[in-house]
Design goal:
alpha/beta; 6-stranded parallel sheet; 5-stranded parallel sheet; 13 strands; 38% helix; binds nicotinamide-adenine-dinucleotide; oxidoreductase; NAD; D-isomer_2_OHA_DH_cat_dom; D-2-hydroxyacid dehydrogenase; D-isomer_DH_CS
Length: 316
């Protein structure tokens, strides 16, 4: 049977599938040629990430397709319900990238608390002519240890981020309307484990108490962080959105930065992807990444391996 990994798949995934007798094609077929290609090559499994879309027309036009697989979490690019109604299996890999996203959040948090995002912009320009000036400009850094991290959305990534925070010596508070308590087990290199039980608290309490706030909620109709939420945060809070564009009101964020309510912020996701607002891209209070939360070699390996396991268990 043939698997088309149209947006690529890790070598670990290819190896596992080939070992089980599958042929894996990693050519990227243009969207408008995809239906023909799937039918001509008799593809049984279509694997995508976020670039390729799998809509009703493709599902209707490719009757031999058995599985649609999404390497990653969000399946906005696939007509999931329709595919399932038509008897296809639709699979994804929800847990594979949680720790990678958590580490990116901490990359931003450590960077922001020591002004690395600005320092990296300024050193190439002024590092030789104004070293002392820059040293003074970035002297008032803060440590994360001992501070409070507020996590909004305490699912897979929220909990993975909380574990990193606990390891870094932070206090963790969390809000999740669908979860009362979570048991977090921290594993250390020498086999020791430490368990933490975190009871979620109200959104308002998280917003009021946190020194740092990180968002890990799914996409939803309303903003989770809007003007009203910014207003009740501590002055000088640092906030990260590595969830989905549209859960945080970017216009309200810029206002909150201008008023001094938010000291600095990090965005990995944007309301307008792939063309974020220039006002955000040029804002010196922002640490920015182009939706690379899940983009690590380790996550890609786990995604490939997890997809292969699921495909083999469905098709044999
Ligand atoms: N930056 C990246 O590259 C990247 C990578 C993977 C996932 N993500 C995104 O991260 C987010 C979290 O993913 P996950 O795997 O942890 O999902 P998850 O489903 O495991 O957890 C989401 C949690 O949010 C809670 N929730 C829902 N609405 C809420 C609200 N209004 N306020 C507070 N909590 C709320 C849910 O109860 C759930 O526990 C998703 O938006 C996902 O798309 C981003």
């Amino acid at each position: 049977m043939k698997v088309l990994a149209n947006d690529g798949v890790s070598q670990s995934g290819i190896d596992a599938l080939e070992k089980a007798g599958y042929e894996v094609i990693t050519t990227t077929v243009a969207q408008e040629q995809l239906i023909n290609y799937i039918n001509e090559k008799e593809i049984s499994v279509l694997l995508v990430r976020s670039a390729t879309t799998v809509r009703k027309d493709l599902i209707d036009a490719c009757p031999n397709l058995k599985i649609i697989g999404r390497g990653g979490v969000g399946m906005d690019n696939i007509d999931v319900e329709y595919a399932r109604e038509k008897g296809l299996s639709v699979i994804n890999t929800p847990a594979a990238s949680s720790h990678s996203v958590a580490e990116l959040v901490f990359g931003h948090l450590y960077g922001l608390s020591r002004f690395l995002h600005n320092s990296n912009r300024d050193m190439p320009l002024e590092g030789d002519s104004n070293f002392k000036g820059l040293k003074k400009a970035y002297a008032k850094g803060t440590e994360l240890k001992g501070k409070t991290l507020g996590v909004l959305g305490f699912g897979r990534i929220g909990q993975a981020t909380a574990k990193v925070a606990l390891g870094a010596g932070m206090k963790v508070i969390a809000f999740d309307p669908f979860l009362e308590t979570a048991n977090l087990e921290l594993d250390f290199f020498d086999g020791q484990t430490v368990n933490f039980e975190i009871k979620t608290i109200s959104k308002e309490d998280v917003l009021k108490q946190a020194d740092f706030i990180t968002l890990h909620v799914p996409a939803q109709k309303e903003y989770v962080i809007d003007e009203a939420e910014f207003n009740i945060m501590k002055d000088g809070v640092i906030i990260v959105n590595a969830a989905r564009g549209g859960v945080l009101n970017e216009v309200a964020l810029v206002k909150a930065i201008e008023s001094g309510k938010v000291a600095r912020a990090a965005l990995d996701v944007f309301e307008k992807e792939p063309k974020p607002e220039m006002q955000l891209l040029m804002n010196p209070a922002l640490s920015l990444t182009p939706h690379t939360g899940a983009a690590t070699n380790e996550a890609q390996d786990r995604i490939g391996a997890e997809l292969a396991t699921q495909i083999i268990s469905i098709l044999g």
